[in-house]
Every structure is written in C-alpha cells, then in structure tokens.
Protein: D-glycero-beta-D-manno-heptose 1-phosphate adenylyltransferase
Amino acid sequence: MISKIVNVKELINRIAPLRRSGKQVVFTNGCFDIMHAGHVRYLVAARSEGEILVVGINSDKSVKLIKEKNRPIMPQDQRAEVLAGLWCVDYVVFFDEPDPLRLIQTIKPDTLVKGEDWAEDKIIGADFVKADGGKVVRVAVVPDISTSMIIEKIIKMYS
Structure:
C-alpha cells in the first residue's frame, strides 16, 4: 500500500494527475497533538469540500516554535500515522515553519479549510488561495474539546 505520509515533492507528483482528472484538492493544517473528536469532525468537514484532503502537520520543530513548553506531547511520526489512518485524509505532509504559507503556495489548493474560530483575514494563505482562484472555508469547531483542555484535565487529575 502506498503511504499517505509524503514529503512535498512526492505530494506534488501524486496530486498532479488527480488535478488533471478534475479532482479538487483541499488543504488544512494543524498540530494534531492529541487527537480527539473535534479533530475528526473538523477533518471530515474539510474532506467534504473536495475529493483530495491534504493535511499539513506541524513538525515537532514547528510545534516547539508556536506552542507552550513540553509540546508536542506526541512525536510527529505518531501524529502523522494517526492522521493517515483516517478515511477522510488522503495525504499528510510535514512543515517546519511556524505557519504553512510556503506549503500552501507550493500545493496551490483549490480550497483552504480552517476552523471558524479563525477570522478569514487571519487565516494564513487565505489571500493567496483566493487570488489563485480558490476558496476559503471556515468549518464549525466542537465546543469544549481541545488538546489544551485535555492536557489541563490530565494535569489536574495527577497533581
């Protein structure tokens, strides 16, 4: 079986023929440190926006740049494996930068998806995707579920 976890060059080579056949490429991104129902619902909603869902995942290096100390909890290879195991995810690709702008500019998705907790003018890559003829979709987030909340609950349980 062909791995869903790919580098950028492999990703471009795999999605090019799919695009030529008319398939719409959807991109979203995140850390996905401790997977939960909110992540799954979000990814299913993202996948519904097209035929190919590419998930950009913050590498361990990237997570350390943008999150609090001791993150990520799960190493990048394990986070990627969990994402790749979901039916709705077609490809997983890492990025080392604090944000996915360069990756978005390389992939040129037809649709960029983020949670509705992000204002559209704050979504990294939104201007690029729209200028390239694509669209930006904000999907509902599940209230009261977040990785940070799960971590806080665990800390309270054991302190």
